[in-house]
Amino acid sequence: MSDLDALVRAVLDRPDDDTPRLVYADALDDLGDAGRAAFVRLQVEAARGEAWESAAIRARCFRGNPGEEWWNSLPELPHGLQWAMPPFRRGFPAAVQATDGAAFVAAAGTLFDIAPVESLELLSTPAGGVAALAACPGLARLRRLVIRAGLGQATALVLLNSPHLAALDELVIGAALTSAQTARAVTASRAFRRLRTFSYRDESQGGALVSALAALPDPPPLRSLDLQGNRLTPAGLRRLFDSPIAAGLESLDISDNHLGADGFHELIVRDPLPALRRLDAMRTGPGTAGVAGLAGQPLLRRVRVLNFGGNALRPVVGTVLRAMPLSEIRVLDLRDNRLGDEGATQLAGARWLTGLLQLDLSENDIGAAGAEALAAGHELGGLIELDLGGNPIPSTSRKALRDRFGDRVLL
C-alpha cells in the first residue's frame, strides 16, 4: 500500500475527521498535484463555515474544478449506483445516486470501503423494498438523503422511522409521489426530529406541509427550509411565520410559489424570522412593490444571501436596490430578470456593493452601457464571481470586463 493509499484508508476509517483529508492534501502537494490539493483544502474549509462566507463561495466558484482527469479517477461503483453530481464533499467523492433502495442495500457492504459516502439520492422507492432499506445498517453513514420521486405515507412511515438514520441532518423529498398524508408522516417521524435542513415538494396538494409544520409544538432544530413549488399562499406563509419552527430558520426558500406582493407583505410587516440569513424567492412575482417594500426593514440588515431571480423585474428595481441598506449582503442573485442597461448602471453605483462576494446578473438584457458601468464600478473589487452570461454584451465591453475582473467574470 502506498502512502497515498494509506491516507485514503484513513479518510475511509475516519470520515467525520478533517485531519486525514488535510494530510492527504499535503501529500498531493508533495506529488505536484497542487490543483487537487487546493480543492480538498477549500472544500474542507467551506464545510466548516456558512454558505455565504468567502470559503464556501470560492469552493462553488473554484476555477480549477475537477476536469476529465478527476472524473475518470473516481472509483467504480457497484451495480445500480452512480456518482451524483457534484460528487465531492470535503474534497472526496461522497455523494451517490441509486436506482432504488435495493441497489443501495446490495452495495452497502462494500460501498463505504470505496469512498466516504455521506449522501444518497434514491431515484425510486418501491414499496416492496422499503423494509429492507430501513433495516440496512449502511443508512447510519448518511448525513443527507434525497428521495427524488417523493414518497407516499406508508413508505415514509417505514423508512423515516429507521433507527439507522440517526446521523441524518438533511432530507430532500421530491413531488411526484408525495401526498398530503406524506407531510404528516414525515413531520412525525424519528428522522425528522434531528433535521437541520429540509426540502419538500408537493406541487399537487400545496399547503399540507405548512399545516403540518405549524402544528408542531416542539419542532426539530431546522436551520434551512426549502418550500419550492408547494403552491404556497400568503395565508400559508402567515401560518408558517406564526409557528415555533420559524424562530430558528436561517435559510428559507419560497421559490416557485406565486406569492406576489401580498406574500412579501408578510415578511415586511411582521419581521417573523429573527435568525434569517438567506432568502430565496425565485419566480415568486414580488414585482417592484414587493422588492421596494423590504426597504428599511430589519430583515435586510440580517440577510447575507438574497435571491430574486426569474421575477421579470424591470430597470427601476436597480434604482430601488441601490437605495436599500444592503451592506450585509454577500450574495445577490438577480438572474433572468429585465434590468437592462439602466438597471445595471444604477446597481453598479450602490455603495453597499463593497461587501458583495457573488453577483448574478445573467439573462438580464444587459448591453454595452450596463457592462461598462459594472466594469467601472468602484465598489465591486471584492467580487469572487460576477455572472453576466446570456447578455448581449459586445466584444469591446467584454474586454473591459475581462480587464477589470479577469476570470472572476462569466460571460
From TrEMBL:
KW Disulfide bond (keyword) present: no
Top-level taxonomic group: Bacteria
Any GO molecular function: GTPase activator activity
Protein name: Leucine Rich Repeat protein
SMART domains: LRR_RI
Keywords assigned by UniProt, alphabetized: GTPase activation, Leucine-rich repeat, Repeat
GO cellular component, one term: perinuclear region of cytoplasm
Signal peptide residues on this chain, from the entry's feature table: none
GO BP terms, alphabetized: nucleocytoplasmic transport
Protein's UniProt keywords contain Repeat: yes
